[in-house]
Structure formats: structure tokens, C-alpha cells
């Protein structure tokens, strides 16, 4: 009899992972990455507004004069207006910040009068409310390392980076063999000396919690020839779990 920790070490020393496959990100949940994921591009790919508000040049503003709103920028807008001093553009979250603007003031801190705005924000600083190009990740950086287990947030990130497929370790094919002359599947009437089999069901559920569906499940009596035959039938499996 060995301890649980010793058993884990024995299993780790005996197991080798060699099979890999490419899966779409829609199917990747629960898999483990078989290679580093490098960012294919800067994220975000351009300077964009973190707020609904107004983009303008803070470095040339005197801190009190109103600004004239000359254009509007929505997320996905193609044309990018150029701004002169004392001009602003109405901008929405995610929209490209004009290259001549350096700051975005939140709409809640602005008083609008026709096409003019009055800024009422004493805390405003240069670059406020702008997400800079590459501020999350830069092209070529490792963003998800080899060995990373893919969770929903991983898939969201991969999709946001334009990645469609990833190389992962193939899920192991597992066989479960339960031995015991006294074991009976649930739902059947028990005879004297018999008990309901439970270990196999628990192990199967444990595998399924890891997105692994056992390929072979068998209940055999405690006879060497029967056990050997069951093992032969499960020989294609990567892992055979034998339990009583």
C-alpha cells in the first residue's frame, strides 16, 4: 500500500504525453496547450477610447476655453478626422483616437452648448481614458504558455487576437476495469453477499469532469483469465484504471 502522494509521483513518472492535435477555439475548452501562443499583433491594434466622451489636445488647451466639436467617432468608424487646437471630436468607447488628440474627457465631465463643450474636470491629465496600441500585449509576446489549461477567458482572448485554431495535447483514451465477484450494477436486485458497484461510476464521473469520456468500462469477476481478457480488450487505451 502506498500513500496518495506516492501514487501521484508514480503515475507522473510513468506517464508520457506525446499525441497532439489542432482544435478550433470553439472546441478547445479544457484542453492543455502543446505550444506557446504568441500574440499575432498588438492588442489593442490602435489607440482607442476607454470611455464615451470627447477627444482633444490637452497639451495645447488653456484649461478654461470651450472647445468646438467638429466630428464624431464611433467604434468601427473608418475616417479619422484631424484636430486643430481648441477642437474636439465626440468619441465612443472603442473608437480610434485621432492621432492629433492626446486625451479623452468623459462625457459626464462636459457641459454641451450647441457645437461647443465646456470641460469640468479638475483631475484630467494627459493621456487619460486612452488605451494605447499594444498596451495589453505586443506582437510576438508569449500570451498563453505551453502547458496552459484552456478556460473560457483563454478562448475569449484567443478570439480577440484573431486566432482560430490551437495546438493542444490530445485527451487521453481511458479504460476503467472494475473487479469483484460481489459487484452488481445499480438498478439490479441484490442477492445475498452482493453489493452495488460504485467505484467505476465515480471514476467515470471524475474523467468526465475533465472532459474525458472513458472509451471502455468493464466489470469482471476476480478471476485472472477474465481480468487479463478485459485488459487485452482495453489495450488501445492510453491509460487503464483497474479498481475493485
Straight-line N-to-C gap: 14 Å
- CA-based shape: elongated
Please count the beta strands (DSSP E, at least 2 residues each).
17
Q: Kindly estimate the percentage of residues that lie in beta strands according to DSSP.
A: 25-35%
Give me the strand/helix succession: HEEEEEEEEEEEHEEEEHEHE
Helix fraction, binned, reads: 10-25%
Strand order of the largest sheet: 7-4-6-5-9-8
Structural class: alpha/beta
The averaged pLDDT comes out at 91
Rg value: 31 Å
Uncertain stretches: none
Number of helical segments with 4 or more residues:
4
Question: Can you summarize the main beta sheet?
Answer: 6 strands, mixed
Which short descriptors sum up this protein?
alpha/beta, 244 residues, three-stranded parallel β-sheet, 17 strands, 4 helices, six-stranded mixed β-sheet, single chain, 17% helix
